[in-house]
Design goal:
The protein is of the alpha/beta class. Helices cover about 40% and strands about 25% of the residues. A 4-stranded parallel sheet has the order 2-1-3-4, with helices on both faces. The chain is globular and about 35 Å long. The termini are far apart.
Amino acid sequence: MKTILLVEDDTSLADGLIMNLEGEGYQVVHVDEGHRALEAFADGNIDLILLDIMLPGMDGLTICRRLREQGETVPIIFITAR
């Protein structure tokens, strides 16, 4: 089963995404703060990150930059209201 890390602070949006992704057979790990995203990525075997840009604590662009600086090549799709 493929695992998706969903980094989204809007609960209603996250709930809808989780329901649909799990319905398609994905395992979803959800966090709602930037710092937790890096911790969750380090804890598990993540196949894809759905990443909000505007997050409390650390924004999505910084998260992406840090992962790439560490040599991580996991696919990242930005989700944003911007």
